[in-house]
Design brief:
Largest sheet: 5 strands, antiparallel
Order of helices and strands: EHEHEHEEHHHEEEHHHEEEHHE
Number of strands: 12
Distance between the termini: 82 Å
Low-confidence stretches: 158-162, 349-360, 362-372, 374-402
Number of helices: 11
Helix content: 25-40%
CATH class of one domain: Alpha Beta
Mean pLDDT: 81
Strand content: 15-25%
Strand order of the largest sheet: 1-3-5-4-2
Oligomer: single chain
Shape: globular
Radius of gyration: 24 Å
CATH topology of one domain: BirA Bifunctional Protein, domain 2
């Protein structure tokens, strides 16, 4: 079993994310503590948030009072709802949250059943539930619960797999609900510093995004438009304005998140680990597909942007362990687009990247992931930036010739 602990500030957001699964018949409330259960059994995020807040003082000392945990048993572990609820309660009790308000949600939207726990660190007297050595304590608790419930040990399982979301399925309909259910948790969980990095992250979940700007009666406006992508990376269905998906999907919230992420990434700790992992993969693997495989085994996805000649002009690495999205140029010259383009230019054994031999680090089995973003097509219109890479395309695209510098003449010219 894998446990993933996330601290945050948005109580309603955590509850709404889980309640959305319940409302979409992809989840269920298995239990709660100090939260009133409605007579009809139908919970809603707003009422639950009010119950949580009744047990919190008006002034709190921490900026991140909310604790959102996922417990992920092995797919072969068959647990009843009662067992899953008991599993969640025992975990919270041993971690120190048994006296706090909490809710236990079951999710069934991916290839295995798992549970999410939402609680708070702030006690009624304003003190905090200790989180010292929380990760180490959680590991010990998980090991004991695996014995108590006869679960398959999670040795070797990647932590980044614990938060896998279901990619948008354009053929399933209700795109607004599907897209909203992905972008809200992703924007909170992952760190990214640029629009290109955020776009690369969304592409893994079959979502496209574009900025729109212009003037309306002398007033300048700018915003975001989201769309679903099919298996080939083409836009499917009607594009959706960010205003239809809530404030968290808008450009103001995105700019704020990028600024906050930049400050966190500057510390260098998460980036240092990502850089070391990528460097090892590049050292041990030569072809593009082998590099992807090596990175995916470590919980990292590689997204490349190519122009219409096949030349790489952008690289983005998505580390699902540290939840960091970062362009290759930020990591160093050896990870930049130019470096990888030179490295893969003569890759005669390059395989079809839209049907990788191994599933992407974040995509469930059977789903394809758009891990290569072609260049913009000038006449394609809004959101037509994703096009498939056709079979038979030149695998050794010519490198554009550099223009010769004009010799500069000094002195007076006649």
């Amino acid at each position: 079993m894998v446990a993933k602990i996330n601290h945050g500030s948005n109580l309603y957001g955590a509850l709404a994310y889980n309640q959305q699964k319940v409302d979409g018949d992809k989840g269920k409330v298995l239990g709660c503590n100090l939260v009133l259960e409605p007579a009809d059994g139908k919970f809603n995020a707003y009422s639950c948030a009010e119950d949580f807040e009744r047990f919190m003082p008006s002034h709190i000392r921490t900026k991140k009072p909310v604790v959102h945990i996922s417990l992920n048993p092995h797919p072969d572990d068959k647990l009843t709802d009662a067992q899953l609820a008991d599993l969640g309660r025992r975990y919270l009790e041993r971690l120190g949250y048994d006296s706090q308000p909490y809710m236990i949600f079951k999710h069934e939207d991916i290839d295995r059943r798992h549970i999410h726990l939402v609680t708070t660190r702030v006690r009624t007297d304003g003190s905090l539930v200790p989180d010292k050595f929380e990760k180490e304590r959680s590991t010990r608790i998980v090991a004991q619960l695996e014995k108590d419930f006869s679960l398959i040990p999670a040795k070797g399982k990647k932590q980044g797999e614990a938060w896998r979301l279901t990619p948008v399925d354009a053929a399933a309909g209700n795109l607004k609900k599907q897209i909203s259910g992905v972008i809200k948790p992703l924007s909170e969980m992952y760190r990214f510093q640029s629009f290109a990095e955020y776009r690369a992250l969304l592409s893994l979940y079959n979502i496209g995004i574009e900025k729109i700007e212009g003037n309306n009666k002398g007033n300048r406006y700018e915003g975001l438009v989201y769309s679903a992508l099919d298996a080939d990376g083409k836009r499917a269905g009607k594009p959706l304005k960010s205003s239809l998906l809530g404030k968290t999907a808008g450009i103001a919230a995105l700019d704020k998140r990028m600024k906050e992420s930049g400050e966190m990434i500057k510390s260098g700790k998460a980036v240092a680990g990502t850089r070391a992992t990528i460097a090892e993969a590049l050292q041990n693997a030569r072809t593009e597909n082998r590099v992807r495989e090596a990175l995916q085994k470590k919980g990292i996805d590689l997204v490349l942007r190519r122009n219409d000649t096949g030349r790489i002009y952008g690289t983005t690495f998505i580390d699902h362990n540290s939840r960091t999205v970062i362009n290759g140029s930020r990591l160093g010259k050896e990870f930049s687009a130019n470096a990888l383009n030179g490295r893969f230019a003569n890759d005669t054994h390059r395989e079809d990247l839209h049907a990788p031999a191994r599933k992407p680090a974040t995509a469930p089995a059977g789903k394809k992931s758009v891990t290569e973003l072609p260049d913009m097509i000038a006449a394609g219109g809004l959101l037509s930036v994703f096009t498939p890479e056709f079979e038979g395309q030149n695998e050794n695209p010519p490198v554009p010739r550099r223009r010769k510098k004009k010799k500069r003449r000094y002195g007076r010219q006649m």
